[in-house]
Amino acid sequence: MPFKSGLELTELQNMNTPEDDNVSNDSNELIEVDSNRISSKFIADRESRRSLTNSHLEKKKCDDYSPGTTSVGMSIFNLSNAIMGSGILGLAFALANTGIVLFVLLLISVTLLSVYSINLLLKCSQETGCMVYEKLGKEVFGTPGQLLVFGSTTLQNTGAMLSYLFIVKNELPIVVKFLVGQENSEEWYLDGRFLVVIVTILIIFPLCLLKNLGYLGYTSGFSLCCMFFFLVVVIYNKFKIECPFLHTNGTLDSATEKCKPEYYTFNSKTVYALPTLAFAFVCHPSVLPIYSELRDRSQKKMQLVSHISFFAMFVMYLLTAVFGYLTFFSKVQSELLHTYEDKKDILILTVRLAVIVAVILTVPVLFFTVRSSLFEMARKTKYNLLQHLVVTIVLLIIINLLVIFIPSIKDIFAVVGGRLPGIRSIVFLNKHSSCHLRLGELRSPTG
Fold first, then answer.
1. How many percent of the chain have pLDDT more than 70?
2. Between the chain's N and C termini, which has fewer beta carbons within 10 Å?
3. Which residue intervals define the domain Amino acid transporter transmembrane in the entry (predicted)?
4. Which SS3 state, helix, strand or coil, does residue 309 take?
C-alpha cells in the first residue's frame, strides 16, 4: 500500500507538471512585468529627485536665506503705503475726463494687471530663490539684467521721493503760514526749502536709520490713516458743497444739466487718464524688500498681502475719484485739493496737512529700497552700522539738494519719465513676464 500510494502521488505530480509549468511561466512573466514597472517607476522617481536636487542647488546659487520678522499686518501696511501716493489727488480729474463707467473699467484693468505682474515677480523669486531685484535680474539675464534692474528701480524710487518732497516744499509753507498767522510773510523760516530740510532731519532721517523695513509698519499705518481721513473729508464735502455751476451766470436748467454726472466722456485730456491710473499703482520696487522681511514667508502668504493691499487701495481710489468728481464735476482740477476754493477752511487745511504727513511717511519706505539696491551692487549685504549711517546721510543730502535747487517738479518728471508713468508700469509688467518666460527656457530640457 505505501508503494502504491507513492506511485499515485508521483503520477499526480507528473499529471500536474504541465499546469505548474504554465503557472510558473505566467508568474515569471508577471514578475518580469512588475519588475519592469517598479524599475521604471524607480528610475522616474530617481530622475525626479535628481531634478529637484538640481533645482534646489540652482536656487541656492542665489538664495542667502534670512528669516523674516515682519507680520502679515505690518507687511500689508507697508505695501499699501508704497502703493498710496500723490497719484490719488489726480484721480477725480481723470474720472472727469473719462466718465464714470470708462474710469471704473480702466481702474479695474490697471489693478488686475498690477496684481498679475506682482504674481509673476513672486513666481520668479520662488524659482530662483532671489529676494533682491538685482540678484533676480542677474540670475535670469546676467550682468546686463542686473544693471538694468538697478537703474530702473533706483530711478523710479528716487523720482517718487523727489516728487513727494516737492509736495512738502510747495504745500507745507501754506499750512505753516496759516497756523502762525503770517499768510503774506516771506520770512526765511517759512521758506519751503528750509522746511524740507527740517522735515528730513526731524522725521525722515530717524526713520531711515531703522535696520528693518518691518519697523515702518507703524508709520505706514498712520500714513494710511491720514489718507483715510482725506477720503472721509472728500465724501463729507460732497454733501456739504453745492454744485459749483449753480452760482455762475446762466439759467438754472443749464446749471442743473452741468451738475449731472457723465458716464462716458472723450476729449483731448482723456488720454492722460491711463498714465494717472498706472502711476497710482506703481509699487513694484518695494515688493521684494517687503517679501524678504515677511515672517514665515511663502509665495501664497505674500500674494495674500498684495491682494489685500491692492483691494484696499482700489476701494479708496474709487471712492475718492467718484466723490471728488461728484462734488465739482467738470470744474475739478488736476490736483483735487486745489479745487476747494476756501483756502482758510480749517478742515481743508487739516486735510492738506494730513496728505503732507502721508507723503512724508512714504519716503522712508522707498528710501529702504534704494539703499538696499546700492548695498547689493556694492556686495555689502551684511549690516554694518557705520556704512548704514554714512550711506543714509549721503543719499538724503543728495535728495534734498535736488529738491532745493531744481525749480520745478516738471524738470524731475522730464528726467525720470514722470510724464509717462504708464510706460513705467508696462516696463515692470514686461520685465516680470520676460523673467518668467526666461526661467521657463532655462528650466526646459531643450533649453
1. 74
2. N
3. 69-418
4. helix
